[in-house]
Amino acid sequence: MSDEGVRIEITVAAPVDEVWQSFRDKEKLRHWHGWDLPDLDAEIDNIYFENAEEGDGATLVVQGHDTFVLTPVPEGTRVVLTRAPVGTSPEWDAYYDEITEGWITFLHQLKFAHEYHPGEKRRTLFWPSEVDLGVSGKPFFESANQRGVVVEEFGPGLVVTSAQMTVVTTYGFSDDQLEALRQRGPADVADPK
């Protein structure tokens, strides 16, 4: 068991108080956390409110151990998430890497929301596999297991892919446009609604 947790760091081109509100306002959390699911509001409540504690400054500890620290930097706000070491919550150890990958996706969705569509609502699609939607985009981020690209035709939107998932974040899409995009994905993989 490691004595150190994983550290994920991003810089958001926005002031600390604005980014902090994205962690403390439920509607703003919907602009970046996760993707559209019927239980998204319950997930947000559970992670950021029911099982969260604010610390000094712009610090938030979620689930009793994963810690977000927001600090001002010349470029805007540095957001650092330090995950608790494996073994802190043995019931979740089997999912540690999966949860870490989720945080990488979510934090880049936070950065994208602030830098491309501050305050705007999004619409998302999710597939539990890598999906080729036949689009290309401008690189936004790359980690060991994920890649995010900005796709102009999606609003501009953000497409995050890995071997285990594809998340598409769109802006300004109607129900018909979102359904047409959903149809570009694999027919045999249901997108949870």
**What is CATH's topology name?**
Alpha-D-Glucose-1,6-Bisphosphate, Chain A, domain 4
SS-based class: alpha+beta
Identify the strand order in the major beta sheet: 1-5-4-3-2
> In terms of per-residue confidence, which ranges show pLDDT below 50 for 5 or more consecutive residues?
none
**Helix residue percentage:** 25-40%
Shape: globular
Order of helices and strands: EHHHEEEEHEEEEEH
Rg from Cα: 16 Å
- Outline the biggest β-sheet: 5 strands, antiparallel
Percentage of residues in DSSP E strands: 25-35%
Our count of domains comes out at 1
What's the number of helices? 5
Straight-line N-to-C gap: 37 Å
CATH architecture: 2-Layer Sandwich
Question: How many runs of DSSP E, i.e. beta strands?
Answer: 10
Average pLDDT confidence is: 92
